[in-house]
Input
Amino acid sequence: EPVRELTRATQRLARGELGQAVTVRTQDEIGQLAGSFNRMSHELAQANRLRRQMTADVAHDLRTPTSVILGYTEALSDGKLPGTSETFRVLHQEARHLDRLIEDLRTLSLADAGELALTPQRVPVAALLERAHAAYSVQAADKGVALRLQAAPLDGAVQVDPDRIAQVLGNLVSNALRYTPTGGAITLRARARGGEWILEVADTGAGIAPADLPHVFRRFYRADPARGANGESGLGLAIARSIAEAHGGRMAVESEPGQGSVFRVHLPAAGR
Output
């Protein structure tokens, strides 16, 4: 009977009826097989739900700038809106938003397919932090946030594509700037541990609620529903994780509401 039940559930699953589960009656090989089937069925159903949600999120995020562009161009062609520099500035801004979203989706699709182009080379860890610091110093100063660079000497190196890791750190610093209030601080630092280097972006911002923390690297996940209104795709952290994993590394985060967050990029040390 356990085998017949498993066969029927497998056939239903093959027809697209996801989420099937069978009763685990024993702890022998048949019971272990039933448990494995239940886990596989659950994961397939969850992956399908996430795929549908991502498709809906992509459609929503593409529709917003497209609607603005279509509305403005229609009004311009009908003569209802004058072709001022402000009008063209808005159109350019929305077109750039659309272009960023398309490029983000392309990066994720390449990472999923294992085809993300990397040009690894030996890069000093200090150079990676210095590049991120130089890129965002002006933006941080304009917002009144102190962007600090670790003063301690960093003598190690990693074997990475410097442009891709700059993209990772840029996403993390940009995210930190978004949630760190005026008068706050963001610190770029790194440390060696057990054959790897850990690059950290620590901020004194709003922090992340415990319920949101396990989901921050999920695509299109927005702990703050207003993020989409600011032109953010919700893909930055997902891209950062994909790039880190493509280098044989990983991402991690620690956060406490009201106390800020620390995002960590774990990368193998050069030679490993």
About this structure: Strands lie at 121-124, 146-149, 157-160, 185-193, 196-203, 250-256, 260-268.
